[in-house]
Amino acid sequence: GKVWLEEQRAEWQAQAQERERVVQEQKAWLEEQQAWIGELEKGKAWLEEQRVAWQAQAEHWQAQARHWQSSPWGRLGLGLKLVNPAQELSDKESKPDD
Questions:
Q1: Helix, strand, coil proportions of the chain in percent (round to 5)?
Q2: Beta-carbon neighbour count of residue 64 at 10 Å?
Q3: pLDDT by residue for the chain (98 residues), tens digit each?
């Protein structure tokens, strides 16, 4: 009986060690996934900042276009191609804001 008990104890100990190894592997995998999630969250925040900036830029140019279209001088400038919204946009993007 004592030999059998020792064999059982050794088997249980081996099983416990294997389970501990699996738990440690899973813990490492989870930590890796959490690191990836952190990177994705940073990327998501950056993309949201970019979206907000582009939306503000689009709203600015929509307002500018409405202004040009509502003003007699603006309509004249657009009609005579003295005002070029595409050129205005590229000029604005090439110059840093003051």
A1: 90, 0, 10
A2: 16
A3: 899 999 999 999 999 999 999 999 999 999 999 999 999 999 999 999 999 999 999 999 889 888 877 888 777 777 777 767 666 556 665 665 54
Give the residue extent of every domain in the chain.
2-94
DSSP label of 95: S
**Cβ(27)–Cβ(51) below 8 Å:** no
Provide DSSP, 47-75.
Answer: HHHHHHHHHHHHHHHHHHHHHHHHSHHHH
Both tokens of residue 79? 């009609």
**CA 50/CA 42 separation, integer angstroms:** 12
pLDDT in tens, 66-93: 887 788 877 777 777 776 766 655 666 5
